[in-house]
Amino acid sequence: MNRKDTNGKTVYEVKASKLTVEEARERITPEFSAAMHEYIEACEKYGEESASAKHCWAKAIVLAPPAFILDMFEMAKEEKLLPDTDGYLRDGTPVISSRTLAEHLNVSHEEVLNSMEELAAIKREYGISTDDMKHDASEVFSKQ
Question: Can you give the pTM of this predicted structure?
């Protein structure tokens, strides 16, 4: 997925791939589709940087199918929107500390923590576990 600006509007290009009907249904649930429509409407009405648009995007991310999350993560890495991971969990899962993320985005650590709490609240609202969001520092190992 590539992001580019066209006449003041952000357009996302999605690489074409062949999907079965079942794969497409897994990727695009009605809840995710509705959340993406809410996000687009909020961007058009209030702007991409508005609190409303950011909240709608957070909701869409929470409801997104795993394939979409992976695509967005890859795009964010390619565009340097995310820093390199700075640690990993015992099972090998790479992680980025909230402080590293704040520094990379040039925002306060508190702002990152508030955004994470907003995501957690949306996850709880939809009955989704938040166990993947916070880890005790003793559970995170530094990259060598």
Answer: 0.69
